[in-house]
Amino acid sequence: MNPDDFPEPMGGDSDDGGWEAVSESNSEGLILLGEDPPELACEERSAEFRAPDTSTLLDPTPAAERKTRLSDDELILELKTRFDQTKQTLYDLQMMTRKLEEMNRKLEDSEKIKSNFVSHVKNEINNPITSILGLTQQLMSGARSSEMTMAIGTMIHAEAFSLDFQLRNIFAAAELEAGEAKPQVSRVDVGRLIKDAIDSFKHLIAEKNLLVSLSLGHEGADEAGRVIFRTDPEKLHLVFSNLLANAIEFNPTGGSIDIRASLYEGLLNLAVTDTGVGIDSSKIHLLFDRFRQMETGTTKRHKGHGLGLSISKAIVDMMEGSISVNSVPNQGCTFTVAVPEMELDGGADAFSVDGNEFFFGDDQIEAF
């Protein structure tokens, strides 16, 4: 290194042998060598000194707590918000408690109704079986006249029919409860199905000397005058049978039953009108409750176990139809069912005349 590269000291000899302040302009600003000028040093020292915040000295509250401190208005608003939240929570709990109490009450009522149903059905099933066994024993005990044999045979048929009808309702209720009831669609001769159901109840109709009339609309009828409708024949048969059984049971001796069936805009409309005791309008909504009967206890005058109408409504709902009732006390009831036409299942074409299905081709159906 060449000594000539260094600048000579300014101001001659110096007591400390140091460099006096020398400035050299460059892109980075002012470079100071040696002692700072008195004015600059004073400015830097004043810039470094800051007066302390006396407010923090007077307030002993920690800094973190001072940051979360709320004003009076903010505190009141926060308290109001929390009070409203507590009030809403208490209201929700009260509503939930009421709903749980209502559900518990309904469960208790349901259990009571089911218990009564089990007891009642036990009698309804045991009585026909006991009668059938007793009547058949009479036939087996010895020779009987033809008139006596006919009378015993008629009673056996009546008891067997009653048992069969009740069991069909019970089995249908079990399928509906388990979610296993599925429509089995076929082409149905509506007139034949209704007439077959009426014929199956003819012994009860004759017993009460009832007049039954049938009016079948011819809109949509084929060349043979038959009204063919695509639906589930077994379920439709059960629905109509329950309505007819109800009309027979609650009709007085010598009364009448009017049955009307018609097709309109893809809907099958069935109406069953009786001249029975009717029902008060305030109790109509109870008609379709399962296991519900208008008469209970020892004063009960009519047979049944409270399943027929509830099952009919459940089946009609499953078929995407509707069922309604119009009644005037002591003047009778009219039950009306409307169900839409359904699509056939699969490729096979099934035809039914009385609730039983037969599989044919189109030409065989026409011949049948």
Can you describe this structure?
α8 packs antiparallel against α9 (308-318). The chain has two domains: 85-174, Helix Hairpins, CATH 1.10.287; 184-295 and 304-367, 2-Layer Sandwich (Heat Shock Protein 90). Helix content is 48%, strand content 14%. The protein has ten helices and nine strands. The radius of gyration is 48 Å and the shape is elongated. Strands 2-4-5-7-6 form a five-stranded mixed sheet, covered by helices on one side. A four-stranded mixed sheet has the order 3-1-8-9. Mean pLDDT is 77; it is low at 10-34 and 364-368. A hairpin with a 3-residue loop joins β6 (322-328) and β7.
SSE arrangement, N to C: HHHHHEHHEEHEEHEEEEH
Describe the sheet with the most strands. 5 strands, mixed
Number of domains: 2
Query: Strand order within the widest sheet?
Result: 2-4-5-7-6
CATH superfamily of the largest domain: Histidine kinase-like ATPase, C-terminal domain
How does the helix and strand content classify structurally?
Answer: alpha+beta
Low-confidence stretches: 10-34, 364-368
Number of helices: 10
At the first level of CATH, what is the class of the largest domain? Alpha Beta
